[in-house]
Amino acid sequence: MESKDKNVLTLLLIILIVVIAGIIGYIGFEVINENVKQGNSEEITDEFDNMIPTISEEELENDEGIQLDDQNENNDNSGTEQGSTSSGTTQGSTGGTSTSRKYSSSGVSVSGYWVAGTIRIPATGIRYSIFTDQSRKALDRGVIILYTTNGLNKAGNTVIAGHNYRSRLFFSKNKNLKEGDKIIIKDTSGLEITYSIYSKFVTNSGDASFYQRDTAGKREITLTTCTDQGTTTGERLIILAKEI
Alpha-carbon distance 198 to 123, whole Å? Predict the structure, then answer.
């Protein structure tokens, strides 16, 4: 009898060890997988930032003015024998050259992805690329544009979607955001615009009423992600923010 009890206890102990090992292995895999995704995301975002230096709105306006002057000058000289050809760069006020910074609906090609810009949210500590690719692969590297009125950081609304893994990745911590928190968006021109959250609510996955909305000619963004129960309930957490 004692021998049988011993065998049962041994078997239970073995099962317990296997279960514990499985749990530890699963947690370890998830941590490694999360770190890999974060590392891949950071590489793309860093590459974009290196390609597109941050620029102020005043510098952007001056840059665009210089480009327009050069374009007009080239148009004036186009019929002459000695006419100049545009080289794709513009002469800056300091005597150097400045690469043309224009918004492209496709974004900038980085590591095989089309990147429209970056998003930073200081309150949750995230920084990711914003992709125009609406694919699972892109959603595993950052966040994506679902809808835009005129383009990122342009007048109108832009809807940005990201995963909620209930971890530190992507929009998982959006539930912790509150009115007044800042969202910083950088676009392909290098311009950074700071937005302030003014509304936060939960709706269903079929609701797109917040996509096209009157922004009175101002810049606005919308963040959308699943709630923690969203994979089963279809609930979406929506955050609205407007330019400061």
Answer: 15
Find, among 67, 151, 149, the residue nearest to 101 by Cα: 67
Helix, strand, or coil (residue 8): helix
Give the DSSP H/E element, type plus range, for residue 28. Answer: helix 2-51
**DSSP code of residue 176:** G
Q: How far apart are CA 16 and CA 214, in angstroms?
A: 59
| Count of CB atoms situated within 10 Å of the CB of 153 | 23
Kindly tell me if the per-residue pLDDT of 130 is higher than 80.
yes
50: tokens are 């290196």
For 179-220, the pLDDT digits (tens) are 999 999 999 999 999 999 999 999 999 999 999 999 999 999
Q: Does 6 or 91 have the greater pLDDT score? A: 6
Assign residue 40 a region: left if phi > 0, alpha if psi is -120 to 50, beta otherwise? alpha
Q: What DSSP state is assigned to residue 175?
A: G
Is-contact 155 213, C-beta < 8 A?
Answer: no
Specify the pLDDT at position 89.
31
Q: Give the DSSP letter string of 61-92.
A: HHHHHHHHHHHHHHHHHTTSTT-----SEEE-
> Do 44 and 111 contact (CB within 8 A), yes or no?
yes
The DSSP symbol for 6 reads H
Residue 91: how many other CB atoms lie within 10 Å: 12
